[in-house]
Write a structure and sequence with these properties.
alpha/beta, seven-stranded mixed beta sheet, 11 helices, Glycerol-3-phosphate (1)-acyltransferase, 7 strands, globular
Length: 226
């Protein structure tokens, strides 16, 4: 089940710690990387939503947090408990600075919908990596249906996010400031998929959602390469 500490609202002390941690982040990113983000106007300002991104590097989460930070109140991160809670310190770190929701691998996400819903709100999205784990090659891997389940059952749109350059940036550097590019796509709305629930099994609808999401991220990747 969802970790209790992960769903408590961030208090004043937590917000101060996050500000102290993330405020220098943009300057550091631009010092070490050529960092740019586009499509931030696609982030809804008046309703909850999910952010769904490809996953290739430990730089992906901070890149998204830093790009979205001026446009959100906070971003929460859906994370695997067995990875991020290897120690008390690491669990505290990710809950404190990344608002991490620590989930068990293989758990039925429907059991956590109430807790997840309590964290979502206008300008308070949840970041999900639909591949489930980092890509070993940097190429987009098959998507799990969990993000489709969350979006449909919570009735919130998904903003696709494509991250380019982080895989190479943590490998052999080809320049002094490797390029990192983020692209935020238009929200994938749930109304057309909800309309299909009367004739299709819900798992099939979840699969349709993630297939379209993957196509959108693929398309953003092509644009990022232009």
């Amino acid at each position: 089940m969802l970790e209790d500490a992960g769903r408590r609202p961030v208090g004043l002390g937590g917000k101060m710690l996050q500000t102290l941690f993330w405020s220098p982040g943009s300057a550091l990113f631009n010092t070490f990387f050529s960092f740019r983000a586009r499509g931030l106007e696609n982030l809804p300002q008046d309703r909850p939503y999910l952010l769904a991104a490809n996953y290739t590097s430990h730089l992906d989460t901070p890149a998204i947090f830093l790009a979205a930070r001026p446009h959100v109140e906070r971003v929460s991160l859906a994370a695997a408990r067995d990875y991020f809670s290897r120690s008390v310190l690491s669990g505290w770190f990710f809950r404190t600075f990344a608002n991490a929701l620590l989930l068990d691998h293989g758990e039925d996400l429907r059991e956590s919908l109430i807790e997840i819903r309590s964290l979502l709100g206008a300008r308070r999205p949840l970041l999900v990596f639909p591949e489930g784990t980092r890509s070993p090659s940097g190429q987009l891997q098959p998507f799990k249906t969990g993000v489709g389940l969350l979006a449909l059952e919570l009735d919130v749109p998904i903003v696709p996010v494509c991250i380019c350059g982080t895989y190479e940036a943590l490998g052999r550097r080809r320049s002094s400031r490797p390029p990192i590019r983020l692209a935020f796509g238009a929200p994938l709305e749930m109304a057309p998929y909800r309309a299909q629930c009367d004739r299709l099994h819900r798992y099939e609808v979840y699969r349709l959602i993630v297939e379209e999401l993957k196509r959108e991220i693929d398309a953003l990747a092509q644009q990022n390469g232009d």
